[in-house]
User: Fold this.
Amino acid sequence: MRMTNLFVQTLREYPSDAEVISHKLLVRAGYIRKLTNGIYNYLPLMQRVLRKIENIVREEMDLAGAQELLMPFVQPAELWQESGRWDVYGKELMRLKDRHSREMCLGPTHEEVITSIGREGIRSYKQLPVNLYQIQSKFRDEIRPRFGLLRGREFIMKDAYSFDADEKGLDKSYEIMAKAYSRIFERCGLETKMVQSDSGAIGGSVSHEFMVLVNEDSESNAGENDVFYCPKCGYSANSNHAISILPEAQTDGKYLEPEIINTPNTHSIEELSEFLNIPASVICKCLIYVVDGKYVAALIRGDRTVEETKLMNVFAGNDIRIARNDEIEEIMQNSGFNATIGFIGPKGLKNVEIVADKTVKDLKNFVIGCNQTDKHLTGANWGIDVELPEKIADIRLVEENDKCPECSHPLKVTKGIEVGNIFKLGTKYSKAMNATFTDKDGQEKPFIMGCYGIGISRTAAAAVEKHHDEFGIKWPLSIAPYTVIIVPVSDRDEEQMNLAEKIYNELLKHKVEVILDDREERAGVKLKDADLIGIPYRITIGKTIKDNLIEFKTRSTNETILISPEEAIQKIISL
Ligand code: ATP
Ligand code: MG
Assistant:
């Protein structure tokens, strides 16, 4: 490709709306252009990168025995009604009506469609196992699209779905995918950690995420997930799923008798613990949430934080948020109280489901809200002063240095970008949608399913987060849009231009993906663009050609050497 023909416009400045480096660089280097919020054009250079990633994914999926198909982007509501997700999938699901007023949606994921395919196409256990995958655009009307390709509304995903006759089969399919995923990301030049995770809106019981860890990388603040891991035994989990050994209960023995005392203006745990001069760990916090439209009170030890996904899962919910002031007023009114935030307690709440975190169970002589403004109950004990809720669950966010659930070693935390996710779905969709096969014993049984996603466009952006410097992108060779760029220093120097053409043609002959920067531009501009765009190798042709030497630069290390043109060609071909 000649640079004069290549459709690329590099920019001098980073886009003003970009917060993370991959977004900044992909726009500035001419890979993507925003069409509208969370929706991007993938320009020719980007398309080449995406194709490279897709082809790695295809090769590994095919090797793992999966078969590619392509399902529609637009899906009918009926399928989603069958699975039960039409009413519970939140606003991320983009719903629309066709000209006959039939309800449709843009596919955010394809469990429903694939289940209907399995239902029609698989009759007998003899056809199992099957793993079908596609590479397709997805649309999720994300509440906060940001970070460029890392969190778009429209994005490209590889999604695969396995059908098995039994749990053992699913375990095997799952393991095959886990291995394929590790290889895929490794081949894309990305080190990943496979961590336990929550199953979210997809459903099912077991799931793992593949995380690109970005914490060590102070330049990257793109990691939207907290990953807790044990440096000793290898336990690792997303914060929405991580557990740790229960912190020991503490009592400071200060308030031994139950008494309602004045605690004016103590709206927060900090204010209350300061006012009473007690540690936060002897306070029982009571927080009001709204889960799928219903009120929930969550009790947790004062020094600990509620993990909202865990809390939501206690109620098998799909949506959770902290209650607004007016909602708390409503609860107070319904329950015959008029306390304000900071003074709420579980006793006497009407129409509110109560759940206690495991940390509060062992509290003794603790302090808790009693639904009277500016007052708290001190010296409280379960069963005497307040009933211990029936529902007790782990709804606690793990903290760094909590003890590993498997080996008690202190846990560490790091930030991660989720590039892939694998789920054991079991019979969630096959049962709901009546997708069955005839088993060996002649019985009709629902398929045991799994699903496996990779964010193709997010993976490309994650690669930029990991591989860049102040001058631009440093693509891993395997996913770079081109392998090498030839830069003659002076376009007016005939000798330089002739040699450039010669090397260019020689490389083309060997099917090397090569750019010849044949622009009438200053050398500085050309060299800067080459670094910005991030082509792994650069051949610079300048004055040293008198000695039959060119400059050979490796972008990943920024190392340059002087070698002969023949040697340079040989080096590139041997890659
Ligand atoms: P997230 O938690 O980041 O919102 P998710 O868990 O909802 O993602 P999955 O349903 O697991 O996403 O989708 C499979 C893969 O698709 C993810 O692992 C991720 O790589 C990619 N992906 C999901 N949402 C987006 C998005 N908004 N933009 C780009 N890629 C995405
Ligand atoms: Mg996921």
About this structure: The mean pLDDT is 95. Residues 167-187 form the longest helix (21 residues). The longest strand covers residues 412-426. Residues 209, 418, 421 surround magnesium ion (ligand 2) (CB under 6 Å).
